[in-house]
Each structure stands twice: as C-alpha cells, then as structure tokens.
Specification:
- With 349 residues, the chain is an alpha/beta fold.
- It has an 8-stranded parallel β-sheet with strand order 5-4-3-2-1-8-7-6.
- Helix 1 crosses helix 8, helix 4 packs parallel to helix 6 and helix 7 packs parallel to helix 8.
- The protein is globular.
Length: 349
C-alpha cells in the first residue's frame, strides 16, 4: 500500500514538473510568427560519419562546416537540425560547448538558425568515444550511433550523468538567439526499443522544463502506431514536430491529424526520393500549410545517405536515384531543378 501511494505521488510530481513552464498555444504561435518560414536540412558535415565524428575535437571540421553551410545559404535555407552526442560532451565538456559555439558562429554568419537534437534511438547501439569506423561501402548510415545507446538508455544509473549533460548544455545556450529550438529525443522507441524509451523521454522533458530555455522544446512524432509515445510527445512539446517520408497524400493526412493539437508545426525529417517524398511534391505542400520543412541530408559524404535504407550497393556505385542529400561535395546540386525550386520557394516571403 505504501509503495502504491509513493508511486501515485511520484506520478503526480512528474506531471507537475512536465507542465511547469510548458508554452501556451498562444505563446507558441507568437514565437512561430516571429520567424520566416523555416526551411533547411538535417546537417552532418560530409567529413563526419556520425555525431561523434562531427563533435570530437580531433575530427571537428569548421572549414567543411563553413563551406557546406554556404551551399545551404545559396539556396535560401535558414534552418539546420544538428545532432549532438553525450559521449563527446563526457570526454570534454568545456571543449564540446566551445565547439558548439564555433558551429553556431559559422551558422549565424550564413543566416542559419540551429535546432539541436539530444538523444537518439536510431542505428548503432553501442557508441564509443574516439576514432570512428570507416563507412561500409554503399551502405546507408553504416556508422550512425544512438545516444546514449542500448541498453544504456534503459539503465537508470546513467540518468544522473545524462541530466548533468543536458542541463549544462541547455543552461549554456538557453538564451542564445542563434539556437532556434531544442529537439530533445530523436525517434524514441526506434531500433526495437518501443516503450522502454519512455523513462528517458519523460526525464529529458522534465530536465528541460526545469532549465526553462527561452527557445521551445519538442520531440518529433515518427511512428504512427506508437500511441503511448506519440501522445506523450505531442502533449508535452511546445511546437509539434514530426517525420514523414511518404508521398504527399499520406503527408497531408498526417498534417490534418496533427493540426488537431492547435500548435505550430515543423516537419523535421522528410525527402526520400525513391519513397516519392521529394522536394517537388512535399516542399510546396509544407509551404502552403506554413509548416517548417527540414529534409534529411545536405551534402553527400561519409554517412552514405544517398543510398536507401537497407538496400546497399556493395560496389559503392552511384544509385539510380539518390535517396537523400541536396549537394555533391563540390557544391553542385544533385538536381538543379530541385535547387531552383528550393530557392524559388524560399524567396517567396
């Protein structure tokens, strides 16, 4: 009986913390109205196979970041979604934050605001600090790693260190105008984790609410059959974010469903050409609906995401059609008609 009472009290306390500092619908719309239509990409420099290679001191590459964000600026992109990693912070907390600041300086120079991502349930389960593996030839995201990993994300003894990391980063940048918003957890429940990700998902929302950054917080809905996770994410996000790699008919259906929450929306992942999620059919839809549009991939590189999910090309040859990415390494668009469309829609302000 005592245990049940404690559990109920703890649940109420959690709910109070989750609601503390949550943005009203009116505040969310006022914030959204202050910004131009948000368009851009999920950004990992072409020289990095994953988040660790991007952020570790030995492989942090501001020269490439500057060049490639210049490509983005050239077609009118104004927003990048960028993954962090707790192991890079753990290895060097102050250096990690300085590298974040350097990245933000570069992005700001190009007129680009940044949405940072904390945790991630996708791909490699056992991230390791230090030198990262070489890409597997012709294989999509062969070196991408989860954060904090599996089973690490399910182990409560890891939560105090993760809380320190999240709160330190948030407190450092909570009033930084170069930061657009905070995406707390990418695709919770992916890679077979399902609702085992719920404790960490709830915890990071509580940690963020306690810091109360000036920027909004969110966690994107991505699997439409994950009812418990989806409800939590939608009901606790200041701005509704979501992923959709389907055609315009399905994408419109998802927009119609998510509109019921009454909050501004940003699609933080789309554009998989061979799934018929393309710039030509999805970007005009998102523009018309006034929904932020962040596609997967900017410049083809070590992540190999020009290759489709689970369909490797073993000799590393060119796919018949690129899955993701906008540019080749030299800044040439993969498709000039796409680059022209992106630029045209971004100029219609």
């Amino acid at each position: 009986m005592i245990f049940v009472l404690f559990a109920v009290q703890w649940s109420v306390a959690q709910e109070d913390l989750l609601q503390k500092n949550k943005w009203s619908i009116e505040k969310a719309h006022a914030w959204y109205a202050e910004h131009d239509w948000m368009t851009g990409a999920n950004f990992n420099p072409s020289t990095a196979i994953n988040q660790l290679e991007m952020w570790q001191e030995a492989t942090f590459d501001p020269t490439t970041i500057d060049r490639e964000l210049g490509y983005a600026e050239g077609i009118g992109f104004n927003t990048m979604r960028v993954y962090l990693h707790s192991l890079a912070y753990k290895a060097d907390p102050e250096g990690f934050k300085k590298r974040m600041d350097t990245y933000l300086e570069i992005a700001d120079k190009h007129g680009i605001k940044t949405m940072f991502v904390f945790f991630d349930d996708v791909w490699g389960k056992t991230p390791k600090i230090g030198k990262q593996p070489e890409p597997v030839t012709g294989t999509h995201n062969s070196g991408w790693v989860q954060d904090p990993g599996d089973p690490a994300s399910k182990q409560n003894e890891n939560f105090p260190a993760l809380e320190t990391y999240v709160k330190d980063v948030l407190n450092t940048f909570k009033d930084d105008e170069r930061v657009l918003m905070w995406d707390l957890y990418n695709e919770p429940g992916n890679t077979g984790k399902l609702t085992s990700s719920m404790p960490l998902l709830k915890s990071i929302f509580i940690w963020a609410r306690e810091v109360n950054p000036s920027q909004p917080i969110s966690a994107g809905i991505w699997a439409w059959d994950f009812q418990e996770l989806n409800a939590f994410q939608a009901l606790n996000s200041d701005i509704i974010t979501y992923h959709n790699y389907s055609d315009e008919k399905h994408h419109q259906h998802i927009i119609n469903l998510l509109r019921t929450h009454g909050r501004p929306m940003i699609c933080t992942e789309y554009m998989a050409r061979t799934n018929n999620s393309r710039f030509s059919n999805i970007l005009p839809l998102l523009k018309r609906e006034n929904i932020g549009a962040i596609n997967w991939g900017l410049v083809a590189g070590r992540s190999n995401t020009k290759y489709a999910w689970n369909t490797p090309i073993e000799d590393g040859g060119e796919p018949i059609e690129w899955f993701h990415e906008v540019f080749r390494k030299d800044g040439t668009p993969y498709r000039q008609d796409e680059a022209d469309l992106i630029k045209k829609l971004n100029e219609q302000e």
